[in-house]
Amino acid sequence: MEPIEKFRQETREWLEANCPASMRTSMPEEETPWGGRNATWANPDSKVWLDRMASRGWTAPTWPREYGGGGLTKEESLVLGQEMRRIKARQPLSSFGLWMLGPALLEFANEEQKREHLPPIVRGEIRWCQGYSEPGAGSDLAGLQTKAEDKGDYYLVNGQKIWTSYADKADWIFCLVRTDTAKKHDGISFLLFDMTTPGVEARPITMISGASPFCETFFTDVKVPKKNLVGELNKGWTIAKRLLQHERDMISGMGLGSGVGSSASLEALAKDYFGEANGRVASAALREHIAKQKMDGKAFALTLQRTAEEAKAGIGTGAASSIFKYYGTELNKRRYELLLEILGTQGLGWEGEGFTEEELGVTRSWLRSKGNSIEGGTSEVQLNVVAKRVLGLPD
Amino acid sequence: MALVLTEEQQLLRDTATQFFQERVPVANLRRLRDTKEPAGFDRGAWKEMADLGFAGILISEKYGGTDFGPVGLGLVLEQAGRTLAASPLVSTVLLCGSAVQLAGSATQRQDILPAIAAGELIMALALEEGPHHNPTHIATRAVAEGSSYRISGKKTFVLDGHVADRLIVAARTSGKDDDKSGITLFLVDAKTKGVSIERTLMVDSRNAANISFDNVVVSADNVLGSVDGGTDVLDQVLDIARIGLSAELLGLVQAVFDQTVDYLKERKQFGVVIGSFQALKHRAADMFAEIELCRSVVLDALSALEARRNDVPQAASLAKARLSDTARVVTNEGLQMHGGMGMTDQFDVGLYMKRARVAAATFGDGNFHRDRYATLEGF
User: Fold this and answer.
1) How many independent structural domains does chain A possess?
2) Record's superkingdom (chain A) (predicted)?
3) B379·A305 Cβ contact <8 A
4) Which among A121, A150, A383, B35 is least buried, having the fewest CB atoms inside 10 angstroms?
5) Is A205 within a domain?
């Protein structure tokens, strides 16, 4: 047997034996396994599943073993993913540490930092948040003003961040700070610090969806040990850009229809809410909109597939990936607008009786989706990037 | 998906690129138009295309073809689209060659396929009867009389109809005008008594014709495939043509886009190149995104054909709808961004726009294929 097939067989057996039955169902939002010091487990199986997967390093399958990862090759990691999907296993851990910070630490951090921070990420023990945007630095992120002053054996951090996802629940923050006020991009550094440090305060912001996933985060004379600087002083922008790429990749996958309201297809919902005639959605205009949406979604999925195959074969320019964030988020927003049209007034309820959980979920997700084309670089910024870097149009 | 080209395919792509750029550039189409060339295409270039193996790309080696397959054909058509090369590729190779290969008897194949591959036989499919693609609306009738049939009716928008040596005619042998079954395909020599062919001059300067059949008598030996069973063959052949046209449109769209981006970098107003204006940058970047998706759906459709996947109809409609619509957007935007120069005959963008509209209308535009996709997907 080929080694990879042997790996597949062992993996299949291990997953069968270790994945709890309730972890093979679609995940309600309240069971999202964020981990962290103050983790709550709406379903205790989530914790069992996380611990078992983390013990093999399979929450971070391709990270090196010495930092707690699974040490798998790309091919093995793909097999693991396939075998997990085969039994509909949930992802054991949702974590900005895994998706964003970890890859950046592997590339830019020193040995001591890797050993300190990567294993707790793998085990879901420390929950991270990202301190990037500021009230005065959104699309123009490099204009950030939160400053860190060199005080000999520590940095003194003062300033304010905004749109910090789950800052009120996070244990640590990776944070962009200004260490040189004379330069813009070359005056930014990348700091890590504990959210329980005196002087840190996070206040949740209520969004149009009614949820509060984002915070305003204030830093008042926060003392950060100097060993928590990642990479060189004033070279944080390089790390920041790389991290943003990981963030965009994460967000652009949304266009493929994850989340609430995606379990039932658009056409099935349309037949339910509008009725059908001769097997067709009763409204011809709506039917056309659904067809267009599905065809655009299919074309986008094929483009993700093509880019992955091209990368694997070492051909192509990879230019297509520059459109993923833009196209995926705009596609997702159109999808929710269409869902709302399909549900009619049943998609416009806020809470309480008269609406199903799913209907209310669509409404809230529709509101949430509006942020997709703002966070992680607005659609307009993405288009600027394509125009400049891919098409070579001048400033 | 067929992403990694074989050595043979790479060679074919390079050959096609060079051939169309050097031998059949846009200037060639202008010459055909301005000299009112009676054939409507360059017979010399077509012969060279046949010698390069392009005419026999879908034909097996047994019948003198090169059998490079759909992906190979896509590569050629994309390059032909870039230079607006007029040729009988769609009529003779995609449509009629495929129909004969799929449904022809051994005698018919032997009679027709080697001649197509050699570039010696031009054929046309007489299908449409109205201004919109509607492959099952066939009022043209074929009535059996002993061992022959008598065909009467009118066909329109027959690609290469006035230069074709032989026609494939879709006629009704049973049922009502809009029935899916009851359609039969006939091989008809263009010079048969009762066949009247009138060339129509289209906006893209390419060939089409109106053809009427007035009690045209053909032998039962000329039935292609089974009596009343033409729809199955037509469905497959039309999907091949739709995918081929999508590949051609991909080349067209890419060419217009490249020319437009070049123009944005060169044209100056207010003391700067107009490509520095964000209003134009964003529209250009948005088109880039749409074109990337176009490339994916075309490659997927060609792969579906090549692998004989069972979702060829969906892939064909996905590709044809997207390419028809994107070609409209990109040629319109291309023209607008060229300003007044885009309105002149001297600039090529207008030629691309005209071809884009005709190719979009050929065998179903975006509206037709969204409707078809929804039906295929069961809603």
Assistant:
1) 3
2) Bacteria
3) no
4) B35
5) yes
**Spatial distance between the Cα atoms of B65 and B59, rounded to a whole number of angstroms:** 4
- pLDDT, position A256: 52
pLDDT in tens, B179-228: 999 999 999 999 999 999 999 999 999 999 999 999 999 999 999 999 99
What pLDDT, on a 0 to 100 scale, did the predictor assign at position A263?
59
Number of residues that make up chain B = 379
Q: Per residue in A348-392, pLDDT tens?
A: 999 999 999 999 999 999 999 999 999 888 999 999 999 999 999
- Structural domain contains residue B1: no
Residue B378: strand pairing partners: none
B270 at A interface, C-beta within 8 A: no
Q: Does residue A209 belong to any structural domain of this protein? A: yes
Are A229 and A262 members of one domain? no
How many domains does chain B contain in total? 3
pLDDT (tens digit per residue) in A313-357 = 888 777 788 899 999 999 999 999 999 999 999 999 999 999 999
In a domain, B215, yes or no: yes
Note whether B240 and B355 are same-domain residues: yes
- Taking an 8 Å cut-off on Cβ atoms, the answer to whether A390 and B299 are in contact is no
**Structural domain boundaries enclosing A296:** 257-390
Chain B interface, best mutation among A266, A306, A327, by max B CB count within 10 A: A306
Q: Which of A267, A306, A393 sits opposite B275 (nearest CB)?
A: A393
User: Is the same domain home to B39 and B96?
Assistant: yes
Place A258 in a pLDDT band, splitting at 50, 70 and 90.
very low
Distance of CA A333 to the CA centre of its chain: 17
A159 and A268 part of one domain: no
- Chain A CB contacts of B276 under 8 Å are 393-395
Asked if B156 and B198 count as a contact pair (C-beta separation under 8 A), the reply is no
A58 token code pair: 């399979």
pLDDT confidence band for B245 (50 / 70 / 90): very high
User: Looking at per-residue confidence, does A256 or B298 come out higher?
Assistant: B298
Interface contacts A/B by beta carbons within 8 Å: 125
Contact A296 B286 (CB under 8 A): no
Neighbours of A113 (CB within 10 A): 17
Q: How far is B318 from chain A (nearest CA, A)?
A: 6
Please list every residue in chain B whose beta carbon sits closer than 8 Å to the beta carbon of residue A382. 285
Q: What CATH number does residue A189 fall under?
A: 2.40.110.10
Is there a single domain that holds both residue B115 and residue B157? Answer: no
**Taking CB atoms and an 8 Å limit, are B373 and A310 in contact across chains?**
no
| Alpha carbon distances (Å) from B50 to B59, B108, B244 | 12, 20, 17
Q: Read off the tokens for A314.
A: 């070492």
CA of A214 to nearest chain B CA: how many angstroms apart? 29
Model pLDDT for residues B149-176, shown as the tens digit of each residue: 999 999 999 999 999 999 999 999 999 9
pLDDT at residue A257, rounded to an integer: 45
pLDDT band with cut points at 50, 70 and 90 for residue B254: very high
- Cβ pair A323, B294 in contact under 8 A: no
| B316 interfacial to chain A (CB closer than 8 Å) | no
Same-domain status, A263 and A230: no
What is this model's ipTM?
0.95
Pick the residue from chain A with its C-alpha nearest to B294: A299
Residue of B nearest to A280 (CA): B379
The enclosing H or E element of A172 equals: strand A172-178
Hey, is the C-beta of B264 within 8 angstroms of any chain A C-beta? yes
Is B163 domain-assigned? yes
Mean pLDDT of A261-266: 69
Alpha carbon distance A367, A265 (integer Å): 19
Domain-located, residue A296: yes
What CATH number is given to the structural domain containing B210?
2.40.110.10
- Per-residue DSSP letters for A174-228? EEEEES-SS-SGGGEEEEEEETTSTTEEEEEE--TTS---EEEEEEEEEEEEGGG
Which range of residues forms the domain containing residue B369?
A: 232-376
Of A291, A303, A320, the CB nearest to B370: A291
- Check whether residue B39 and residue B116 sit in a common domain: yes
Kindly state the tokens that stand for A297.
């979604």
Q: What 3-state DSSP class applies to B192?
A: coil
Over 80: is that where the pLDDT of A249 sits? no
In chain A, what residues touch B370 (CB-CB under 8 Å)?
288, 291-292, 295
CATH assignment at residue B250 = 1.20.140.10
